[in-house]
Amino acid sequence: MSSRLLQNFKGGRAIVVTRRGGWESTLETTLAKLGVSTEYPEIIDGRAQIDVASLQADRDILFVDGDLESAVAIEVNPASRLPPVPVIGLVGVEAPSRLKALVNLGATSFLRKPVHGGAVYTSLFMGINQFLLRAEMNDRLQDLEERRRGRRAVIRAVILLIQQGLDEEGAYSQLRRESMRARQNMELYCEEFLSKRAKPPDTSGRTTGITLQGGNKQAI
């Protein structure tokens, strides 16, 4: 199933990390025509003052000037290699080290400086949609990995039912019916199925007796 690409960016917020020099006015004007507002975080001691916790992936786009060394500190997901919001690299000097820094930030698109208005939409389109596609792909991979781990529980549950007298097909069918009745996926249901049967029996209130000489019993 192909994902739907985002083409309308109205309501977005561009956070542009750069030192103001006049060239950015073209970027700001073009973004405004696309319905995207622009903010310039203050840079103190070489670090952009960004409230990372407040960033929203469905609204914010981070433009990072590659000519500013280590101006942005954001955490990249180790599995997907994605930042919390789409990142578009602003490229001036095409030094490999600066391009690498932008890639390590999770940039999914680039825009050359000085910015030309005609290039902004393409860069925005690519940056946001590549971010969304990679995030969706990572979610699918994580789901598949969880299901792969859960298959162990399914196999163990089937074996348990076989030991109780069912054949393989009957055991699997029973688990599938019960998981559907419980409105759970098969893997999760089997994990809970095994967990319940792994609990020790409740012996509270029960007594056993040892017969003593004379026929009397002593409770233990």
Question: What would your notes on this structure say?
Answer:
This is ANTAR domain-containing protein. Residues 197-220 are annotated as: Disordered. It is a single chain. With 220 residues, this protein is an alpha/beta fold. It has 2 domains: 13-138, Response regulator (Rossmann fold); 144-198, Arc Repressor Mutant, subunit A (Orthogonal Bundle). It is built from 5 helices and 9 strands, in the order E-H-E-E-E-E-E-H-E-H-H-H-E-E. The chain has helices at residues 24-33, 96-104, 117-163, 168-181, 186-198, and strands at 13-17, 37-39, 43-44, 47-48, 60-65, 87-91, 107-112, 209-211, 217-219. Helix 1 (24-33) links the parallel strand 1 (13-17) and strand 2. Helix 1 packs across helix 3, helix 3 (117-163) crosses helix 4 (168-181) and helix 3 (117-163) packs across helix 5.
